[in-house]
Amino acid sequence: MACPHASTPEGAREIEDTVRTDFHNAMSYGSYLDLERVLSAQHPVSVPEHHDELLFIIQHQTSELWLKLMLHELVESRRLMDKDELGKALKCLARVKHIQKTLTEQWSVLATLTPREYAQFRGFLGSSSGFQSFQYRAVEFILGNKHEGMLKVFESDPAAHELLSNTLQEPTVYDAFLHALSRAGYAIPEEILDRDVTKPWVFQEALVPVFKDIYESDDTVWSLYQACEDLVDLEDNFQAWRFRHMRVVQRTIGFKRGTGGSSGVDFLKRALDLTFFPELFAVRTEIGK
Asked: What is the largest CA-CA distance in the chain?
């Protein structure tokens, strides 16, 4: 149903006649996005309800939505690499990089929460903690930072436990890329191609000459070079997110222990030592030698 003719108030934009206004029997913006459920999914637990708790909830809920999309794109990227459709796979990684930048910038919103404001409702959070984000763990798993012991945290959530268990058993994006390189004729050692994918990735010296060749040869297929750089970008972005996370936590709670039982800032600092694609950084020392 088109918008009926009506006089437009002075200073207002005229509503075009073709704009639909009747959604009794049609899909609307709100119904498509299921906004009734989405916008009613914020349940502050502080008593009396603290004004700033809504910020805290929305910050984390929106992060989880972005993590859902990030995981979706990483899984697709891996699938496309397995099919040697590298161009399409890199399109997925390009989207992931933009998601990462959005997630990192979001910390600036949470940073508007002062230490005093957070302290006024932090005690109501109980033992809930971002450490328990199964989607974050799944992203780390598919990028190579696997840790079977993490599954224990999710034993009370069968769906989350199943997702992480499956992701633990599956190859990483890096594994898929290395197999693609092998099919393209690069000398990837068999012991790397046949590695136990449930284990965290560790530095493989034998890959450094392979990447040196990719970076230095004039005959390198551009998509392979770009894939290397995209993975480096992805890790850089991840480290920027980790660092921003650590700094926001430090400015908000100092060196208090985390609500989930971790040592807090010290625990987050140690995450900065983790790496997904160490050979892609190590090769930079060798290029030009």
From this structure: 75
Six token digits for residue 285: 């020392």
The string of pLDDT tens digits covering residues 220-229 is 999 999 999 9
Phi and psi angles of residue 3, each rounded to the nearest 5 degrees, phi first = -70, 125
Give the helix ranges, DSSP H, for the chain: 29-32, 35-38, 53-82, 86-110, 115-122, 134-143, 158-169, 173-183, 190-193, 207-216, 222-253, 265-271, 278-286
Q: How far apart are the first and last CA of the chain?
A: 71
Question: Burial of 147 by CB count in 10 Å (0-12 exposed, 13-18 middle, 19+ buried)?
Answer: middle
**CA 230 to each of CA 72, 82, 136, 177, 235: distance values in angstroms, whole numbers, following the listed order:** 17, 17, 20, 12, 9
> Does residue 167 contact residue 239 with C-beta atoms inside 8 Å?
no
Kindly state the tokens that stand for 106: 């979001």
Determine the residue type at 77.
Answer: S
Which is nearest to 129 in space by CA: 265, 280, 258?
258
Which residues touch 286 (CB under 8 Å, ≥6 apart)?
Answer: 208, 209, 212
| pLDDT tens across the length of the chain (289 residues) | 445 556 788 888 888 889 898 999 999 999 999 999 999 999 999 999 999 999 999 999 999 999 999 999 999 999 999 999 999 999 999 999 999 999 999 999 999 999 999 999 999 999 999 999 999 999 999 999 999 999 999 999 999 999 999 999 999 999 999 999 999 999 999 999 999 999 999 999 999 999 999 999 999 999 999 999 999 999 999 999 999 999 999 999 999 998 998 998 999 999 899 999 999 999 999 999 8
The helix (run of H) or strand (run of E) holding residue 172 is none
CA–CA separation, 247 and 27 (whole Å): 43
Is-contact 68 138, C-beta < 8 A? no
